[in-house]
From TrEMBL:
Keywords: Signal
The keyword Signal appears for this protein: yes
Source organism of this protein record: Patella caerulea (Rayed Mediterranean limpet)
Signal peptide: 1-23
Domain named Laminin G: residues: 23-211
Name this polypeptide is given: Laminin G domain-containing protein
PANTHER family the UniProt entry points to: PIKACHURIN-LIKE PROTEIN, SP2353, ISOFORM A
Pfam families noted in UniProt: Laminin_G_2
One GO cellular component term: membrane
InterPro entries from the UniProt entry: ConA-like_dom_sf, Laminin_G, Neurexin-related_CASP
Length: 250
């Protein structure tokens, strides 16, 4: 399976349980969204998740710096993954990457977004593409002021300054219908954290992911769900021990 081959180093997996794995199921209703904590999108941070859907269009995730210039959006558009990122109040700070085809095949696919200073990398399953955006600032907003991360859609009436934001209306229109799991934040550290949902609408959490039911992994080996099982992913720990200062997923 491509998802397992990409994200896991099988020699480092510690099996945890045999409970059937499930996920967040988004119903694609007008007010569908799942609210997650603020992501510290620094110059060496990453974020990853897995999805499964039959829909050709839908919003995976969106966040911004509360209506100013910086925004970050990942969506499914015509069966491909589209990444849009703006990090400065200048045109040369914008990034757009489209990757993959026919990903609405009701199979699990992995998405990883990596930041390396001015470079942004999008990885979908085993394929990656990157773009460099040079501007006055490579950082994304201010962690103390940035908004929450919304998966599957944003709440109705989501407040942003449309006069100052380059974001178009697709962010509020394209509600996701399908499944998401294994949402991992890399908050400027070499060890990822499982992000926990804070609030949601139009989303089913039952039955819950195996890692949410029975997570026996140590703090330095995050729990990752797969079909029919779960495991502790410890390859990031090995990178940290090797002395790497920030995460690079190969």
């Amino acid at each position: 399976m491509a998802v397992i081959n990409q994200l896991w180093s099988l020699s480092s997996i510690i099996l945890v349980s045999l409970i059937t794995v499930n996920s967040l199921r988004f119903r694609g209703e007008p007010n569908t969204y799942a609210k997650f904590p603020v992501w510290n999108a620094c110059i060496n941070a990453s974020i990853s998740f897995e999805f499964k859907t039959t829909q050709s269009n839908g919003l995976f995730l969106y966040t911004d710096n509360n209506g100013r210039y910086d925004f970050f959006e990942v969506a499914l558009k015509d069966g491909s993954v589209q990444l849009r990122l703006n990090v400065v109040d200048e045109q040369d700070g914008s990034v757009e990457i489209v990757l993959g085809n026919n990903l609405n095949d009701n199979r699990w696919h992995s998405v990883v977004v990596k930041r390396k200073h001015f470079e942004t990398i999008l990885q979908v399953d085993d394929t990656s593409s990157s773009k460099v955006a040079f501007g006055s600032d490579s950082g994304f907003g201010d962690r103390r002021k940035n908004n929450f991360v919304y998966f599957g859609g944003v709440p109705l009436g989501y407040a942003r300054d449309s006069r100052r934001s380059p974001l178009d209306e697709t962010v509020t229109d394209a509600k996701f219908e399908g499944d998401l799991r294994n949402i991992l934040y890399f908050n400027c550290t070499c060890i990822p954290e499982r992000a926990s949902v804070l609030n949601y609408q139009g989303v089913s959490r039952e039955p819950r992911e195996t890692c949410e039911i029975n997570n026996r992994c140590p703090a330095d080996c995050p729990c990752v769900s797969v079909e029919g099982d779960s495991g502790c992913e410890c390859k990031y720990k090995e990178s940290c021990i090797a002395g790497k200062t920030y995460l690079i997923i190969n």
